[in-house]
């Protein structure tokens, strides 16, 4: 099975051209095997592009633990670069069919592999997160986690996100609190958790605990959710570019006045190779 290893600001993926490669029926097991950092190729997720009846390709993303995700912002940028190199699409704006709906990506700077993605519109209703609470939406609402209350803001970008604002994100106990919030009883499908430090009118710093992966170096949908939460909590203005600072660079997010969200960021190819599951048993 031929694969390409790519990353978006350190959030890394094993990408398979499903138009050419024959895949095992148990994709979940394959994802766990190839994503294993010591026994496999190593990645945060397995990304497969395949034939679609409604877009240029189906975009299927599996987390490192084998669970399936609805969407992935960093993965979409990688997919746009991959689709062009593989001849899957020659369009200037490439539509992908995801579990979260149709997502369109455009390579805006080919020399620097910068991709702009129309991320759709955020959903704030708790039923859409989903979150098992009686309130219609959660914006800066205290929720008990363990024995302490944390003010949380919930956003869906086609996948669930929980945003927590902190004063010093670099020294915050993300790996301790992240899994507690991810698996909290109010999240029937679990949740991604963004820890966000406001840095100014148009700038925030983020660390993320991803559902099914643990802490990752970047999260595109998480950056969008963090920007929405920053606007709702009065830290950033709506309709302006917001720089979301991550470990290995920044994403530019804009929650436009019409409620649509755009994301601009890089994608990079690391290496290519051939993987035989039999070699890793």
Task: Tell me briefly what this model is.
With 281 residues, this protein is of the alpha+beta class. It has helices spanning 27-35, 73-85, 174-182, 220-232, and strands at 2-8, 11-17, 45-50, 57-63, 68-69, 93-98, 101-109, 114-120, 141-145, 148-156, 160-165, 192-200, 203-210, 214-216, 241-246, 249-255, 261-266, 268-274.
Protein traits:
single chain; 18-stranded mixed beta sheet; globular; 281 residues; alpha+beta; 42% strand; 4 helices; 18 strands
Mean pLDDT: 96
Beta content: 35-45%
- Unreliable runs, pLDDT <50, ≥5 residues? none
The radius of gyration computed from the alpha-carbon positions, rounded to a whole number of angstroms, is 18 Å
Terminal Cα span: 15 Å
What is the makeup of the main sheet? 18 strands, mixed
Number of H/I helices: 4
Helix content: 10-25%
Helix-strand pattern, N to C? EEHEEEHEEEEEEHEEEHEEEE
Structural class, by secondary structure, is alpha+beta
Topology at a glance:
Layout: E1 2-8, E2 11-17, H1 27-35, E3 45-50, E4 57-63, E5 68-69, H2 73-85, E6 93-98, E7 101-109, E8 114-120, E9 141-145, E10 148-156, E11 160-165, H3 174-182, E12 192-200, E13 203-210, E14 214-216, H4 220-232, E15 241-246, E16 249-255, E17 261-266, E18 268-274
Parallel strand pairs: 2-3, 4-6, 11-12, 13-15
Antiparallel strand pairs: 1-2, 1-18, 3-4, 4-5, 6-7, 7-8, 8-17, 9-10, 10-11, 12-13, 13-14, 15-16, 16-17
């Amino acid at each position: 099975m031929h694969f390409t290893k790519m990353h978006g600001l350190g959030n890394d993926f094993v990408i398979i051209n499903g138009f050419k490669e024959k895949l095992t029926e148990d994709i979940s097991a394959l994802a766990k095997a190839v994503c294993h950092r010591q026994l496999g190729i190593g990645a945060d997720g397995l990304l497969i592009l395949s034939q679609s009846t409604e877009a240029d390709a189906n975009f299927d993303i599996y987390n490192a633990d084998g669970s399936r995700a609805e969407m992935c912002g960093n993965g979409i940028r990688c997919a746009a670069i991959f689709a062009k190199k593989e001849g899957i699409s020659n369009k200037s704006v490439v539509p992908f069919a995801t579990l979260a709906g149709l997502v369109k990506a455009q390579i805006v700077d080919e020399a620097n592999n910068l991709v702009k993605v129309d991320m759709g519109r955020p959903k704030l209703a708790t039923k859409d997160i989903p979150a098992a609470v009686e309130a219609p939406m959660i914006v800066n609402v205290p929720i008990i986690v363990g024995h302490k209350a944390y003010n949380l803001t919930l956003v869906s970008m086609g996948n669930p996100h929980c945003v927590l604002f902190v004063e010093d994100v670099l020294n915050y106990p993300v790996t301790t609190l992240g899994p507690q919030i991810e698996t909290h009883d109010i999240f029937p499908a679990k949740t991604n958790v963004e820890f966000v430090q406001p840095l100014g009118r148009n700038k925030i710093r983020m660390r993320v605990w991803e559902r099914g992966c643990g802490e990752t170096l970047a999260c595109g949908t998480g950056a969008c959710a963090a920007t929405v939460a920053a606007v709702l909590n009065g830290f950033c203005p709506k309709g302006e570019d917001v720089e979301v600072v991550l470990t290995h660079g920044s994403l530019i997010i804009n929650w436009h006045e019409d409620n649509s969200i755009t994301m601009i960021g890089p994608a990079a190819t690391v290496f290519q190779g051939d993987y035989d599951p039999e070699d890793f048993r």
